[in-house]
Structure formats: structure tokens, C-alpha cells
Amino acid sequence: MSRAYWKQRLKDAFLVLGGGGVLFSSFLTIKGDEHFYAQCVMPILQQIVSPELAHTLSVKCISMGLVPLCRRHDSERLEVNVLGHRFRNPVGLAAGFDKHGEAIDGLFKMGFGFVEVGSITPKPQDGNPTPRVFRLSQDRAIINRYGFNSHGVEVVKQRLIFRGEKQKLLTAGKIPIIGVGGVSSGLDALQKIRAGASLVQLYTAFAFQGPPIIGKITRELDRLLLEQGFSCVSEAVGADERSNV
User: Fold this and answer.
1) 28, 29, 137, 235: which has the fewest Cβ within 10 Å?
2) How many CA atoms within 13 Å lie on the side-chain side of 194?
3) Which residue range is the domain that position 116 belongs to?
4) How many distinct structural domains can be found in the chain?
């Protein structure tokens, strides 16, 4: 057989393998595979895209629905009622990611139990000059000095009104606690809940590990609640404080 024949066969093989690799990677991305995101997607993005550009693109993609959807149904044990609202799970997104209230629906579809938007300023402002976001990959941390860049309260308010959001600050004279910071596993979430938090939020873990971290935390939290004899999140709230009385 001619050299041209083998050259064409080799080219076809590369196309098939390359196309298969792209399709498989796309499948894992849409599926929200935890290991694929942790070992491939997020590390590659962090190497080739600046922190602020990655943040901006993420919000835009999520606002357009281009996200891996949460295919796992939260169990009833994860349900919690706070401020007169029912949350399907106590794991929320902290302020600073969706600063302008653009991606709320997409974030809920990814599996968050609640989403905090902002920070929001009275008037639109640009914030600090760039660069203003820095990754500390070795420490799994982010330095954020955006300087409260915001579309302004009126713009964000209209977005929230459009979604039909109704917010209450206090109910029944109680101020629930939301645990934020250092949440990257179900155990982290449960420790904050046992200490008195009704809800927990994450941000840095979401930035480093991507959308699958939501399902990972809720899955682990559900298992731990069952193992420790709690029928729901509300039973676990303040358990450590009660045991010390």
C-alpha cells in the first residue's frame, strides 16, 4: 500500500480519536463529573484564564444556562426552613460571585439551596483598577480586591423583582445564622450547622473545584446527617451547643 494511503489512515485515526476525546470531555463537563472538574477542567482554566476573566465568563455562561445541571434530587433530610422560606438544602453561594444578580436561576439549577447576590452599591461604580483578583493556588485561596464594582442598586433590584423574589429580614423575632467561609465538604457544612448555623455558604471552594462541589457537599452532608441520627438539617442546628448545656 502507498505511503499516501497510510498517511490518510493515520490522519483519519487522529480525527476519530480527537473527536471522541472532545465528545467524551463534553459529556463529562455537561454531566458535572466531580473528578473531571477537579483534575482537568478547573486546573486548565486556572492556568490559561486570568481570575477576573474566569469569573466574568463563568457568570455569563451560568446566566445563559450553559452549566452542568444538578441531576441529584436532594433528600428530605437536607430541607430546612429559615425566615419563612423553604430551602431544599442548606448550601448556598456567598456574595461576591454573582455581583449583579445576573445568574440566579442558573445557580439554582446547579444545586445551590440559596444564592446571595452582591455586594450592591447605591449607584453604579467600576471598583478598583485591574488586576484586582489573585489566585493563591498552593493555599487554595483567592485574594479579592474588586472594590465593590456594581451595576447599582436600582439595576439589581429590577432583576430581583423580575424574578419575583420577596425577601424578609426577620421572622418571629429570630435572626438565623448563615455559616460562611471554609466550606468545601459535607463535614465542614455539618460542623457549622451543629455549631448553630441554619444555612451555609461557599465561594472559594466553588471557584477552585467548580459546579460539582455543590453536589459533593450536599451528598456528603446527607450521609452524615443519617449517620449521626438526624432526620433533617433543622434537628442538627445547634446540636453541639445543646450538648454543652
Assistant:
1) 137
2) 15
3) 32-244
4) 1
